[in-house]
Each structure stands twice: as C-alpha cells, then as structure tokens.
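In this supplementary section we document a worked example of the pipeline. Step one takes a protein sequence of length 151 as its only input; no multiple sequence alignment statistics are reported here. Step two produces a three-dimensional model, which step three serialises into structure tokens for compact storage. The input and output of this example are shown verbatim.
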Amino acid sequence: MQTQVWPAILSLVGVLFGGGLSFLVQTTVQRRVERNEQSKLAAERADARRVEQLELLRQFIRAGQQAERAAEDRDDTAVWRTAALDVVDELWVCERMIHVLFASSLHELARAYVKALDHVLWQEPVSGSLWDHLKGPKIAFLAAARDELSR
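The serialised model returned by step three reads:
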C-alpha cells in the first residue's frame, strides 16, 4: 500500500508545483504587459501634449507678430482699432493657454511680452523705439520657450 501512495503524492506535488510556476509566469507576464502599455500610453500623451504646445507657441508668436505690425502701422482709424483689439484678444487667449500648458516661468515671460505688446499698441513708447521696448520681453520669452521645448 505504501508503495502506491508515493507515486500519487509525487504526482500531486508535481501538479501543484507546475500550477504554481504557471501562475507565477502568467502574473509576471501580465504585469510586464500592463507596464509596457502604460509607458506606451504615457509616451503617446507626451507626444500629443508636445504637438499641442508647439501649435500654441506658433499661434502666440503669429499673434505677437501681428501685434507688432499693428503697432508699427498705427493710424488710429476704426479699422485699425478693430484689428488691434482682435489681435490683443488673441494674444491674451494664447497667454492664458500658455498658463495651462506650460510651466509658470514661461507663462510669466509670455505675460510680460503681451503686456509690452499691449503697451506699444495703445501708447507710444516714452523713450526709445517700439522695438527697444519689445526686444527684452520678446527675446526672454523665445529663449524660455526654446528651453521648455528642449526638455
């Protein structure tokens, strides 16, 4: 009787051992697949965010250029005033979106640039030219934007 029990016990131990190893392998593979999927989704989100940030910067720089042109072409007509108001509105919207999508340091520089543009649109610079008034905030913003995108 005892000789018949040992093969059954060894068979049962083998089944338990094989089942445990199978469970361990399946769990490990499942965790690895989930981690890979999460990292892939994170990379896709980062790529999408970068595209969104680039488009916002392009829009902001375009609006800034339009504001500079409007300030240079100032003639205080109703048409000019409407165009200037539209471009200032666009600048402020972009500035707020920069606040949402970028670090606060870049937002502060964007805000300083928009304030400088707003000032030269509606008032003549007291000292120096229009470009002298815009040069500092503009260069600081563009340099910070380049640094932000290089991360």
